[in-house]
Specification:
The protein is an alpha/beta fold. The protein is built from 16 helices and 16 strands. Helices cover about 45% and strands about 15% of the residues. Helix 13 runs parallel beside helix 15 and helix 14 crosses helix 15.
Length: about 400
């Protein structure tokens, strides 16, 4: 039996579908973000990163680095095991208190990643409610989809942000049946926002719980960085808020926040929490430092929004197909997997600009794109260079530009 043939065939299918992924060997240098070193096949090259989820550059912030180094020096690098066996390291206790305060909830629970917090959080909550019905937005992240699958209970998918469809499904359900509505506040591939208030209204009307993923919004929106829900004054109406420490906070890990009873139940029943080594003390301390800084400082958020707006304006003026987005996400539509990958390769090899292609299954086939995420540290010169490079690549690949731009050439 040639077992390797199975794996070779699977990889061949990805290559045939133009979905085989190649990782760039990058070395980010603290203090120089968004500049980085690309270890290319021809040797090291300086590049500019335009697709990092370290949205605010907090991964290089002196307070965050300082907290990590000081804690590692004092407490060591590892957590020593699961919290059930090794106990809870004190920086993790402080982090969970900080997160509960950020979202104005009674308690919070930290997991090793945002993926695990969704996968484990959703499945555990649903299993604890007999005969639970999960109603899930059609565009939810894979981690949420897996959480729903692992719950092994009935699920219904409502059309993306379609409140009429959600209400139809809720109205048809047994009024006394437990119901859990799961959705994202900000959908990262298109940059659109959920109608949170309307979802909460429907949940109140039909007796459902709400579970919102704020992964791409936490730290980025709201007076203290509590996310879209804080910005819109809706945190107290949501039963569970899930988010990550790996994006705006520049670290790693995920969490959920909610009532004390809900969080304690997940802590006590969730396999993805019980049987996983805890977040190391230095990481917990670094994340806490990032959260505390962003609670007090609005400069990063304000500068970030201004940079995103300017990037959209400059790319649009250049005739590039910027997909409409009310948030900091700047998608450039390509619509073909092979040319999307080619555009990414050309930007990197010829212009020193790193933007990963976004292909199926992350987005539907035919909607392939380059997903650009400006940071507070992308200055005017870098934005202008990005537009010039993208126009050059669009010409070389014979991708369509807007008519007004073509007429001006």
């Amino acid at each position: 039996m040639d077992y390797s043939a199975y794996f070779t065939a699977a990889l061949s299918r990805l290559r045939d579908e133009r979905r085989y992924r190649v990782f760039a060997d990058l070395e980010r240098i603290a203090g120089r973000f968004p500049h980085a070193l690309w270890h290319s096949p021809q040797g090291p090259r300086n590049v500019v990163i335009w697709c990092s989820n370290d949205y605010l550059g907090m991964g290089q912030h002196p307070k965050v680095i300082g907290a990590m180094v000081e804690t590692a020096t004092r407490m060591g690098t590892g957590a020593g095991g699961t919290r059930n066996i090794a106990g809870t390291n004190h920086p993790l206790v402080e982090l969970e208190r900080e997160l509960a305060d950020l979202h104005r909830k009674e308690a919070a629970l930290v997991f090793t990643s945002g993926y695990i917090s969704n996968e484990t959080g959703i499945s555990t909550l649903a299993k604890l409610m007999p005969n639970c019905l999960i109603l899930s937005d059609a565009w939810n992240h894979n981690s949420m989809i897996e959480g729903v699958r692992q719950a092994h209970c009935q699920k219904q998918i409502f059309r993306h942000n379609d409140m009429a469809h959600l209400e139809e499904l809720l109205a048809a359900a047994d009024p006394v049946r437990p119901k859990l509505v799961v959705f994202e506040s900000l959908y990262s591939m298109d940059g659109d926002v959920a109608p949170i208030a309307r979802i909460c209204d429907l949940a109140d009307r039909y007796g459902a719980m709400t579970y919102v993923d704020e992964v791409h919004a936490v730290g980025m929106y709201g007076a203290r960085g509590g996310g879209i829900a804080e910005r819109d004054g809706l945190m107290e109406r949501l039963d569970v808020i899930e988010a990550t420490l790996a994006k705006a906070f520049g670290c790693i890990g995920g969490y959920i926040a909610g009532s004390a009873a809900l969080i304690d139940a997940v802590r006590s029943y969730a396999p993805g929490f019980i049987f996983t080594t805890a977040l190391p003390p230095p990481v917990a301390a670094a994340a806490t430092a990032a959260i505390r800084h962003l609670k007090a400082s609005s400069w990063e958020r304000e500068r970030h929004q201004e940079r995103a707006a300017r990037t959209k304006a400059v790319l649009t003026a250049a005739g590039l197909p910027v997909m409409t987005s009310p948030t900091h996400i700047v998608p450039l539509f390509v619509g073909d997997p092979e040319r999307c990958k080619a555009a990414s390769d050309l930007l990197l090899a010829e212009h020193g600009i790193y933007i990963q292609p976004i292909n199926y299954p992350t987005v539907p086939r035919g909607t392939e794109r380059l997903r650009i995420t400006p940071s507070p540290y992308h200055d005017d010169a870098l934005i202008d260079r990005l537009a010039e490079a993208a126009v050059d690549v669009w010409h070389k690949l014979r991708l369509p530009l807007k008519e007004r731009a073509l007429a001006a050439e």
